[in-house]
């Protein structure tokens, strides 16, 4: 069985409304279902959704603080004042900086920009840097994607006669800075003047640029789109227009910096969509802020020279590769720490010495995905611990930590994510606070996150017509997700891993044809998927794949569930070293086999003797190396220790099932022999005796055991002698004979059964009552 990660919810929109939209507006069924599910009903709402046009952008002047900001900027431009644009080190901050700098420069301003380092100035207003800029002649500061939390720092600037214009989109603090203008889409607090409150930092900068130019700033709408997508802002309302138009601009004529990034990544600008920005351009630019000087990112985005852009993009790619390796190393180390923990917690907290703090947020997200638990990842320098936290749906991570600020030297965030610095000695208390919060918020009872499914489909539905219909609904992203479909599958074929086992691809067999499937992050279940299941269901999004001029359509796997036993038939008559190198938990029922073979199990697996198996609460792929002593022993294991899959090997060096069962004639032949000879040296003459009797050595050994138990013979110091006048005994009732027949039947059921028969048997054993 493979359990789904999400709680699947098949959309059930108002059928009558869907039909009305189909008939009155000639909308395809899938489009009608989607827009109804998005809460759109009126013709105006639907048209605005399906045709996100520049004409529908709101007037920048409606933004609180805009008039004052523009007036002060024009004054500075006309008088030649020295202006500095102060940004942030993430993609939204870089694009905001580039937009504002471009707009001011094109207006003739004396302008420069600065983007703080994560490791030197940190996020947001920094008094020391402000003082340095002031000393260098700055006369007007313009913050982008930050600033609303800088009341103290901006007050110092004001005391020096330096004005500040704040443009930001982050949560509003109780005290706003005393700036010339605070341009923010959610001001005034009581009744925001702007119709849409979820602009990104780049979106706010775009609106300021448009107000300065007195027309939409078309030339930088691509940057606004990039910042909006990378900051995971909801792609609805005005954001939808910005991203749709920005993508169009990038497809038609990508700026040199973006084109260079795409070229290195092997992507064609003409194929750009919001998802590829989020997975291709965004992470590479973010890598700069995580590891190096984010000024490089702004320089790349503003570059007009293809050669310069290519050189800068190559530097960015090198940083991104370094970031990927760091993420991989820290994730592996953190995962191993969780595995080795003596106590399991509802919230993961891991601390590593010297971990690069620029990747801790990514690693925390990885742990959330892998474990389904809120996770905090901290890097220690021996005295302090600094890091990031990521939560799951339904668990407020921020509030319980905010109530214990005495633990931290620095702390901030929201319900779903946080950043913190604390003394290393306080990490234990941090874990305690989180454990208590998990109990208070009933974290153990939180259900799976919902996954909305638009419709059920079959393999035959994955075609150009369907794909082009779905494109009407893009761009996809936060709050406007890709349509997800459910596919019933009769079988899975050609399962292969990619990228060192991280991802998988396979063919799903459906009633109406085969369907290629790509599963990013599903590599861990590759072996399990090759088992046999009663039912398999997949959910995912439809994507287009163009390879060597051929276009095909595939499912991008989001989740799956499989009912019934997951049996991978690894049975063999020859136990090879390669078979012991899989990512599996190898269970040994025979101690001698365990002692001989445990050391040959690869680094990805674990060798476990049967007696120790019950110390585990969860196992992965259960590789049953040799035969159990009985079906009861096997059933007890399968019921007591949950496993993701069962991979029977059932190796036995000398199979009993292939031996001839001794009959009356065989017993008689051996009986006459032992009555005729005395002091038979079994250690030295056993083979000759077997040859003399023309009998298999295994059978002869069994008969000697039966005779010994029946008191027909004695064996002392390796010498066999007959017993005079032995009593009559039913030899088939001896323990030795019964053990032989029991073993024979066990081998018949476990080794010599068909895969289907074995699957049924193991499934029954796994589901028997404890």
Automatic annotation (TrEMBL):
Name used for this protein in its record: Single-stranded-DNA-specific exonuclease RecJ
GO BP term (any one): DNA recombination
Sequence similarity: Belongs to the RecJ family.
UniProt key word Hydrolase: yes
Domain RecJ OB residues, every copy: 457-559
Keywords: Exonuclease, Hydrolase, Nuclease
Residue ranges annotated for the DHHA1 domain, each copy included: 349-437
The keyword RNA-binding appears for this protein: no
Organism: Weissella viridescens (Lactobacillus viridescens)
GO molecular function: 5'-3' exonuclease activity; nucleic acid binding
Stretches assigned to the DDH domain: 82-228
SUPFAM superfamilies: DHH phosphoesterases
């Amino acid at each position: 069985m493979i359990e789904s990660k999400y709680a699947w919810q098949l959309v059930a929109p108002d059928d009558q409304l869907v039909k009305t939209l189909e008939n009155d507006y000639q909308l395809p069924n899938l489009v009608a279902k989607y827009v109804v599910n998005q809460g759109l009903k009126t013709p105006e709402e639907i048209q605005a959704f399906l045709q996100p046009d520049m004409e529908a952008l709101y007037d920048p002047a409606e933004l609180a603080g805009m008039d004052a900001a523009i007036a002060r900027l024009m004054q500075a431009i006309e008088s030649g004042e020295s202006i500095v644009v102060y940004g942030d080190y993430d993609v939204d901050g870089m694009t905001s900086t580039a937009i504002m700098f471009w707009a001011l420069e094109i207006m003739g301003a004396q302008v420069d920009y600065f983007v703080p380092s994560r490791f030197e100035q940190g996020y947001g207003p920094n008094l020391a840097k402000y003082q340095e800029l002031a000393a260098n002649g700055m006369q007007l500061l313009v913050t982008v994607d930050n600033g609303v939390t800088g009341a103290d720092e901006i007050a110092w600037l004001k005391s020096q006669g330096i004005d500040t214009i704040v443009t930001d989109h982050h949560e509003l603090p109780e005290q706003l800075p005393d700036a010339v203008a605070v341009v923010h889409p959610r001001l005034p607090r009581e009744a925001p003047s702007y119709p849409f409150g979820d602009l990104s930092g780049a979106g706010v900068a775009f609106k300021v640029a448009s107000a300065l130019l007195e027309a939409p700033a078309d030339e930088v709408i691509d940057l606004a789109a990039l910042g909006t997508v990378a900051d995971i802002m909801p792609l609805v309302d005005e954001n939808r227009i910005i991203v749709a138009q920005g993508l169009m601009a990038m497809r038609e004529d990508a700026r040199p910096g973006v084109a260079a990034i795409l070229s290195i990544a092997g992507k064609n600008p003409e194929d750009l969509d919001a998802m590829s920005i989020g997975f291709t351009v965004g992470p590479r630019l973010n890598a700069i802020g995580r590891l190096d000087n984010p000024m490089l990112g702004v320089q790349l985005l503003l570059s007009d020279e293809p050669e310069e852009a290519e050189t800068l993009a190559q530097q960015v790619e090198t940083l991104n590769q370094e970031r990927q390796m760091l993420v991989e190393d820290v994730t592996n180390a953190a995962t191993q720490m969780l595995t080795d923990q003596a106590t399991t917690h509802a919230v993961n907290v891991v601390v590593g010495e010297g971990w690069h703090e620029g990747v801790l947020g990514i690693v925390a997200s990885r742990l959330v995905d892998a474990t389904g638990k809120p996770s905090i990842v901290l890097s220690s320098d021996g005295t302090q611990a600094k890091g990031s936290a990521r939560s799951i749906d339904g668990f407020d991570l921020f509030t319980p930590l905010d109530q214990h600020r005495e633990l931290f030297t620095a702390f901030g965030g929201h319900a779903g994510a946080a950043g913190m610095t604390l003394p290393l000695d306080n990490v234990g208390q941090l874990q305690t606070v989180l454990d208590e919060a998990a109990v208070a918020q009933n974290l153990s009872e939180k259900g799976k996150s919902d996954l909305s499914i638009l419709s059920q489909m079959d393999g035959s539905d994955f075609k150009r017509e369907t794909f082009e219909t779905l494109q009407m609904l893009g761009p996809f992203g936060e709050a406007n997700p890709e349509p997800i479909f459910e596919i019933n599958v009769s079988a899975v074929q050609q399962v292969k891993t990619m990228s060192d086992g991280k991802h998988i691809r396979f063919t799903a067999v459906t009633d109406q044809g085969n369907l290629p499937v790509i599963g990013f992050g599903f590599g861990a279940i590759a072996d399990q998927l090759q088992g046999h299941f009663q039912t398999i269901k997949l959910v995912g999004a439809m994507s287009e794949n163009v390879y060597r001029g051929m276009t095909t359509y595939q499912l991008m796997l989001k989740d799956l569930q499989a009912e019934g036993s997951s049996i991978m038939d690894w049975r063999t008559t020859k136990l090879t070293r390669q078979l012991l190198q899989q990512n599996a938990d190898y269970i040994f029922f025979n101690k001698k086999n365990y002692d001989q073979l445990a050391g040959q199990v690869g680094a990805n697996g674990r060798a476990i003797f049967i007696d120790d198996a019950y110390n585990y609460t969860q196992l992965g792929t259960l590789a049953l190396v040799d035969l159990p002593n009985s079906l009861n022993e096997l059933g007890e294991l399968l019921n007591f220790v949950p496993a993701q899959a069962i991979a029977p090997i059932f190796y036995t060096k000398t199979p009993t099932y292939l031996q001839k069962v001794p009959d009356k004639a065989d017993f008689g032949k051996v009986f006459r022999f032992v009555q005729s000879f005395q002091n038979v040296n079994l250690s030295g003459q056993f083979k000759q005796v077997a040859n003399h009797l023309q009998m298999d050595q295994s059978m002869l050994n069994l008969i000697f055991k039966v005779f010994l138990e029946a008191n027909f013979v004695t064996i002392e110091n390796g010498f066999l002698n007959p017993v005079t006048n032995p009593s009559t005994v039913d030899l088939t009732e001896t323990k030795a004979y019964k053990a032989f027949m029991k073993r024979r039947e066990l081998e018949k059921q476990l080794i010599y059964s068909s895969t289907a028969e074995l699957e049924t048997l193991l499934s029954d054993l796994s589901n028997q009552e404890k």
